[in-house]
Specification:
Blueprint lengths: L36 H4 L6 H12 L8 H7 L4 H13 L3 E7 L5 E7 L4 H11 L8 H14 L12 H16 L4 H9 L10 H11 L20 E3 L6 E3 L7 H9 L1
Antiparallel strand pairs: 1-2, 3-4
Helix pairs in contact: 2-4, 6-7, 7-9
């Protein structure tokens, strides 16, 4: 019994596909543009956006690619072209950056990417070796041991063994965790020392660290956030930058459109 493969490509007796596209390819030696399949076969971009990205990538640097310029070339119109440009921005094939000129006017600079920015950034992040962040707890423990070991510079009676330093370090760290500067902890341990010999410096310091430990800082009320201005948008009519919660047209273009 012959096994059936419903997903296999049907071929004619001549060996060619009996249905679907067939390519007749000729090599291009000049005047061509390389476009990745990630763009040509993008599953989320519209055909308008894919075609527009291909056209923009084929243009020489410095060619105007504003909405009005593109609408004058193609039959889709300004609204569909503006929507396609936003698609390309969302998927990393296009960036329209706002720049302020010396005159004070804000203009839009367009950057076209033949590979989406988010994919390139993800690939770079995947190949870059991770940089571990320093653990704040070991840093505080190190500051505590350094503080204790340096007490003998203030008074020779406060010489501690290495074992005593490590045993007292958590008590010093508790002070640092409560927001007390290291200089204040050091001053607490070295000020007002008795005139008599200190026979057990470790016990003496442990008693001060325990009995004089300040309370935790009160939690400050979170300041109310000031209202953020609306984001900058590129006008679908004149391509000037304006602030609005969503893309569209600036006030001048809306006013002129209503008057028309």
């Amino acid at each position: 019994m012959t096994e059936q493969h419903p997903n296999a490509h049907a071929r004619a007796a001549s060996g060619r596909y009996s249905s679907g596209v067939q390519h007749v390819n000729e090599p291009h030696h000049d005047n061509f543009t390389v476009v990745g399949n990630h763009l040509a076969q993008h599953p989320e971009l519209s055909l308008t956006a894919i075609g527009l990205a291909t056209h923009i990538q084929s243009l020489p640097a410095g060619t105007p690619v504003g909405i009005k310029t593109l609408a004058a070339k193609f039959p889709e119109g300004e609204i569909r072209i503006a929507a396609a440009l936003r698609e390309l921005e969302e998927h990393g094939y296009l960036a329209r950056n706002k720049e302020r000129l010396q005159s004070g006017r804000v203009v839009t600079r367009t950057l076209s990417y033949n590979r989406p920015r988010n994919a390139a950034a993800a690939a770079a992040a995947a190949t870059a070796p991770p940089v571990p962040e320093p653990d704040p707890r070991p840093l505080r423990d190190s500051a505590a041991t350094d503080l204790l070991a340096g007490l003998r510079a203030h008074d020779s009676r406060l010489v501690l063994s290495a074992r005593d330093v490590h045993r007292l370090a958590p008590a010093v760290t508790a002070w640092l965790d409560r927001g007390v500067p290291a200089t204040a902890v050091e001053r607490t341990l070295t000020t007002g020392l008795p005139e008599d010999p200190i026979r057990h410096p470790a016990a003496f310091l442990a008693r001060r660290l325990t009995t004089l430990l300040p309370p935790p800082l009160p939690i400050a009320p979170r300041p109310s956030a000031a209202p953020r201005p609306a984001p900058l948008q590129t006008c679908d009519g004149c391509e000037r930058a304006f602030r609005a919660p969503a893309p569209g047209r600036c006030r001048d273009c809306r006013t002129s459109g209503a008057a028309a």
